[in-house]
Design goal:
With 138 residues, the protein is α/β, with parallel strands linked by helices. The chain has five helices and four strands, in the order αααβαββαβ. It has a four-stranded parallel beta sheet with strand order 2-1-3-4.
Amino acid sequence: MMFKVKTILCSFMILSLFVVNTSSWAQSDTLPNDLGKKVNTPEGLKKVIDSKDLRFVIVDVRPETAYNNGHLPTAINIPRGFISDIKNPPPKDKYIILYCYGGLTSPAAGERMLADGYKYIFVLGGISDWPYELETSK
């Protein structure tokens, strides 16, 4: 009985460390001039999308089929943030906003893109609760 309790407590502690690390990255950013504060809500990001601000590139890091079924307007698809897998990666001086569905894939994609030389990364997290219309691709 005591072994089971210790095992459950240990598992809970490990899981909570993972969740804390993931959620802390989910709102971290390397955008200059506090621009991350401008895009950290659906309303703020929608304003950026609607303004067509060319400094920003919105990147969907989900698999291509998920992207095709519905993505944020103007978003490009770079599954899991692997730049080497796409023909025309965004310029490295752009402000990259990454998202996935639930917030678990985009943090790793952010780390990967930072390692690939992108210096302006904002990890939005997941869009499962995105309140606005999504675009679809054929």
